[in-house]
Structures are given as structure tokens and as C-alpha cells.
Write a structure and sequence with these properties.
617 residues, alpha/beta, FAD/NAD(P)-binding domain, five-stranded parallel sheet, 16 helices
Length: 617
């Protein structure tokens, strides 16, 4: 079989790797795979569209691929430059370079009448074609800038999309910078601007945002032990959620309900108020989402934790405003983020309605405090940075297949391939509310390649659409992003589909491993690790849905998975604090949802028995 892969970002590279490894893992015939990339190097958006001081918002523990881990000595959050180096090393490790065609943009992918596809691409100024049996579209979500229409924007001297911003000096000296968009890029750019030689920075938003910490908040109660300054940093928030009774061993009735979301809604509000006295976000006192927000419908802005001190300059109360706030501040101590601002601030404003003839901004009246604060301000921007995201398009696909709206909200099986054509896969076109895209692309690549080459091994095939809504985020009718997923639920669903989700019995068996089988061959690495018998089960139950957890078994089994779980991932789980880590995010949900799932299982089993006894279909 011949397969084309379009795009050399994380999704394209991991898809190529699994295609090339299918012969050994699945016992299929060798796959001839070619990857086509328009840029001069691999890395996708991390190579082409990053800016000075850019840092990943997802942790290395979650972001790294299952069988190629970052060094333990590295920081939890690596730079974009370091991640590109990681991807290059990934290509070298798995010998992907001979199959990668750089500076080779794909012009069209045409479907043949009798099956297969014809890929037309450019190389060294000449047009070439390559016939193949399947195509993996891995061109990414962050390619085509989304440019909003704002009346009079041409009156601003400099207007840039965030993809064009590379260095601090592009802001200029003593200039007023207007940043449009309050997502993670908008937060990063605002921070970059306010820490540069600018005169003023104004951040504009449409309907609020939610600043989230990169690490699990861990306020200290006054009666708890004093922590040493040498203690390790708190665990990254994207790996702080336990999987047992959250995704593993959850009855479908509970999985499909909103009970889990309701718990996390209350938990997020509680931890925010306990830590900072506000429910809007991490030490966030302005610009919060409307009061009715739910964790099932928002994207957490993990870049904003460094920005909040600059936003708070005008809005954060100098002292507690109520008796409850005073009591909270006396009982709970949270590290103060209001430092190192050097009297600088970022002003928050509504979305611009227009740019007036004199170059000043007229802001929309959103009825919120920031409008009342800014309506009489004469804001005349010298530079506008559009942090307004991207639109994803497929101009190289044939007519009828290029509109991305066909593939949103259930248009694809598991958000990967069309229900009527499994030979074309879309890898990397989901966005988690709290997590990372690269690890999800590995799950997607595993399932798509398995379904393409050995469909009989897909568990539960044909895959049911009924098993998809539970992992999708709720989106409003006019929402720009309609492909949001819950990272943990989506990862676990794809692991179930590939038969890679281990049971508790499987984990115990892996914990008590033998270094050698009866014939003397190696069975698994890391059998000599001290405490492996308890570290594996605890990492499985208390840890997030790390990709490596689902390489212990299944068609893509990897011998090194248990060792990674018992060392790197165990260390990550063990870093959590007892009360604000294990107890609130593990023990309490397990005590609530474990019995609920058990009751559902018992009721469903009893109901099935009655149906059999009374011969009802």
C-alpha cells in the first residue's frame, strides 16, 4: 500500500512513523509512505509561526510521544525552539528522513474513479504527481490566518497577524499596542508587549476568557507544614486529573451524562476562590466569562497566569472586600503573583467597533466594567496585533471535499476519517480544552492506520457514533471553534477502539513482570525497578491518560512502556500534594463516581437478565 502524508508538524510525523512501523506491529505488508511538507524543515506551526520567548502551554510529560520521551532534567514546559529540536530528533530516531519531502507543497489531491488518489505537488519548481491508496491530511489547524473585519483598520500604521510577529522590536519604541484576541496567543503577545519598550498595551476581547494556571494550584493552609523552597514545582495542571472512574471503569450512562462535568465545574470554582478569592480565573479580577460558563464549553488559557498581574493593576482589590474574603485570606496562603510588574499594566477593553478618522478606537459597549473604564479613553494604536486564530481549509482537496464544515461535529468517524471513505484521514484537527494536540494526534494515527491496514482488529467495528458525543465540548451556534474535545475522554475512547486500554487485572500482571520469558527472550524492560508492583497500578489509576499508558498492550504494544510508567510518569503523579492534589482531584471523584458507576452496572445487568427471562428483544 502507498500512503501520502501532508504536513510535517507533530501530526504528520507521528502518522508517518506508525505507517512505517505497521509491518512489524500489525504483521501487514510493508507500507510505502511519503510525507510532503511545504516548509524547509519539520515542526509545522512550531517552526513557522512562533515568536520570541515562545513556550509550550502543555507539559512535556503529556506532549511527548509515547516512545520518545524528553530527558527528566528538562523543565516541565519547554520552549518552542526546543520542541522543534525534539521533533527533528524524533525523525532521526525512527529513520523518517528518507520518507520526508521538504519544500514540496501539495497542490491537489484528486480521487481516482476506481479507488486511490493522485497527489500533485511541487518540487524544485516543477510539478510532480504520485499515485497512492490513501492520504493522511496533517496540515494543521494553524495555517491560514483569520482576519476580522474592523471598519477603519487601515488607519493604523502597523497591522500584523500574530503569525507575522517574531521579535519584540516589531512593537517599536514608545508605541501604543492594541492586541485583538484573548486566547493563549493574545496573552503571550500582550505579555511580550508590556515587557518591551512600549508606551501602552491594550488587550481586547469579545466575550470574556478564563486564565488558567500551568501548574496545579496548591494554596497552603495555615496549619499545614512549611514547604521548603527546594521543593519541586507543582505538577502541571494538564496531568493532574486521575483516570480511574473518570474515564476508566465509567458506565456509559454516567459517561454520557453531565455529572462529571458538574463536579469539575464546582471544583474549578472552588479551587479558584480558595486560592485567589475569585472564580473568573487564575488571580483574574476582570474579563471573566459570563456567569453561566461550564468547563464543558470553555478553552482554558494557560498562557494567562503570567499576564494576570498586569491585568490586575486596576481591578484587584487592595484588601479583602467581605468577611468571607477576610477569613479565606487568613486561613489560606497562595503565592502572590503581583510581583515584577515594575508599575506596568495591560488595559482590558471590549472588541473595537471601528477605528475613527483620527485613528482612535471606538469600543463596543459590552455592558461590562472594562467598557465603562475605557469609553472615555483616547486610545490611538500605533500597532495592532491580530491574535484572532486561524481558519482551517483544504484547498488541495477536490471539489466537495475542501470545506472543513463537512468534517465538524460528527462528520468524521472519531473525528478522523469520513464515514464513507476510510482512505483519507484528518489527523490533528481537534483542540482540547485542557491538554495538548500532539499526543491526541498519536492516538488518532494509531486508530486510523489500524483501521486502514487491519480493520478487523478495531474493537467494536464499525465504530458507533453514539460513543462520540461524550468527549466533545459544547459549542454555541455561532462559535468559531467547533472541534473542541475533552482531552482525557477523547484519548481514552481512541485507546478503547484500538484495544489498548488496560484493565486493572492487566495492570497487576504488568506490575509483577518477569524480565525473561520461558524461552529466554525479553518480555519487558524495567522489571528490576524498585516498587514496580505498586507504581504501575497507582500511575494507571491516579495518572492522566498519558499516551505511554496505552502502549502496554494492544496492536501498538511497546516493551518500554512499563518502564516509563514506573519512572517518569510515577514521579509526575508522586509530585502532587496530598490535599489539593490527590484528595480533591482523585479521592473525592473516585468516592463519588465509583459507586455511581457500580450502581449503573448492577442495574443494567439486572435489567438485561429480566429481559432474557421474559423473552423481550
Amino acid at each position: 500500500m502507498r500512503v501520502a502524508v501532508i504536513g510535517a508538524g507533530p501530526s504528520g510525523l507521528v502518522t508517518l512513523k506508525y505507517l512505517l512501523g505497521a509491518e512489524k506491529a500489525l504483521g501487514t505488508k510493508p507500507v510505502e509512505a511519503r510525507l510532503f511538507e511545504s516548509d524547509v524543515g519539520v515542526g509545522g506551526t512550531f517552526l513557522a509561526r512562533t515568536y520570541e520567548d515562545a513556550e509550550l502551554v502543555s507539559s512535556r510529560q503529556l506532549t511527548c510521544f509515547s516512545d520518545f520521551r524528553c530527558e527528566d532534567e528538562e523543565e516541565d514546559f519547554i520552549s518552542a525552539k526546543r520542541y522543534v529540536e525534539y521533533l527533528n530528533a524524533y525523525c532521526t530516531k525512527f529513520n523518517l528522513w528518507p520518507h520526508i519531502n521538504l519544500s514540496s507543497p501539495v497542490k491537489s489531491v484528486d480521487k481516482k474513479e476506481k479507488g486511490g488518489h493522485v497527489v500533485t505537488y511541487l518540487s524544485r519548481g516543477k510539478e510532480h504527481t504520485w499515485e497512492c491508496d490513501a492520504v493522511a491530511v496533517c496540515s494543521g489547524l494553524h495555517v491560514n490566518p483569520s482576519i476580522p473585519e474592523i471598519q477603519g483598520i487601515e488607519r493604523v500604521p502597523v497591522v500584523l497577524h500574530s503569525s507575522q510577529l517574531k521579535r519584540r522590536d516589531q512593537f517599536g519604541v514608545d508605541k501604543t499596542v492594541l492586541v485583538l484576541g484573548s486566547g493563549e496567543t493574545g496573552a503571550d503577545v500582550s505579555l511580550l508587549a508590556v515587557t518591551s519598550s512600549t508606551k501602552r498595551v491594550v488587550l481586547c476581547h469579545r466575550n470574556g476568557f478564563h486564565l488558567a494556571p500551568k501548574r496545579n494550584p496548591n494554596p497552603r493552609l495555615i496549619f499545614s507544614r512549611q514547604r521548603s523552597p527546594l521543593d519541586r514545582p507543582q505538577v502541571p495542571i494538564d496531568v493532574s486529573r486521575a483516570s480511574l472512574f473518570d474515564t476508566a471503569y465509567v458506565h456509559p450512562w454516567l459517561r454520557n451524562s453531565r455529572l462529571l462535568w458538574i463536579y469539575y465545574d464546582y471544583y474549578v470554582r472552588w479551587i479558584l476562590w480558595t486560592s485567589w478569592g475569585t472564580i473568573h480565573g487564575t488571580d483574574q479580577w476582570i474579563g471573566g466569562k459570563p456567569d453561566g460558563w461550564s468547563t464543558a464549553e470553555i478553552f482554558f488559557n494557560k498562557s494567562g497566569y503570567k499576564l494576570s498581574p498586569y491585568l490586575n493593576a486596576t481591578w484587584k482589590p487592595k484588601s479583602p472586600q467581605s468577611s468571607m474574603q477576610r477569613l479565606r485570606s487568613q486561613l489560606v496562603q497562595t503565592p502572590d503573583t503581583q510581583t515584577q510588574t515594575q508599575s506596568r499594566q495591560v488595559d482590558l477593553a471590549p472588541w473595537p467597533a471601528r477605528i475613527n478618522p483620527d485613528g482612535t478606537v471606538a469600543f463596543q459597549d459590552n455592558g461590562r466594567p472594562e467598557y465603562r473604564h475605557m469609553r472615555d479613553e483616547a486610545v490611538k494604536p500605533d500597532v495592532v496585533i491580530l491574535c484572532t486564530g486561524y481558519t482551517h481549509e483544504f484547498p488541495f482537496l477536490g471539489r466537495g471535499r475542501r470545506d472543513p464544515r463537512h468534517y465538524e461535529g460528527g462528520g468524521l468517524v472519531r473525528d478522523i476519517w469520513p464515514r464513507d471513505d476510510p482512505t483519507i484521514g484528518f489527523v490533528g484537527f481537534v483542540r482540547p480544552n485542557l491538554g495538548a494536540i500532539p499526543p491526541l494526534t498519536e492516538f488518532q494515527a494509531q486508530l486510523w492506520v489500524l483501521n486502514l491496514l487491519a480493520p478487523e482488529r478495531v474493537v467494536g467495528a464499525p465504530l458507533r457514533p453514539e460513543d462520540e458525543p461524550h468527549y466533545r465540548l459544547v459549542c454555541k451556534t455561532n462559535a468559531r471553534i467547533r472541534y473542541g474535545v475533552d482531552h482525557e475522554s477523547y484519548a481514552y475512547q481512541l485507546a478503547l477502539d484500538t484495544g489498548a486500554a488496560p484493565s486493572f487485572g492487566d495492570i497487576l500482571r504488568h506490575g509483577f513482570c518477569r524480565a525473561e520469558a520461558d524461552d529466554g527472550t525479553s518480555t519487558s524492560t524495567g522489571c528490576d525497578i524498585a516498587g514496580r508492583w505498586y507504581k504501575l497500578p497507582l500511575t494507571w489509576a491516579l495518572g492522566a491518560n498519558f499516551n505511554t499508558k496505552f502502549r502496554l498492550q494492544g496492536p501498538w504494544k511497546w516493551d518500554g512502556a512499563a518502564e516509563v510508567m514506573a519512572t517518569e510518569l510515577w514521579d509526575t503523579v508522586a509530585r502532587r500534594e496530598l490535599f489539593f492534589g490527590h484528595f480533591t482531584l482523585s479521592v473525592i471523584p473516585m468516592l463519588i463516581f465509583g459507586p455511581v458507576s457500580l450502581l449503573f452496572f448492577l442495574y443494567a445487568s439486572f435489567y438485561r437478565i429480566l429481559r432474557v427471562l421474559f423473552h423481550k428483544p
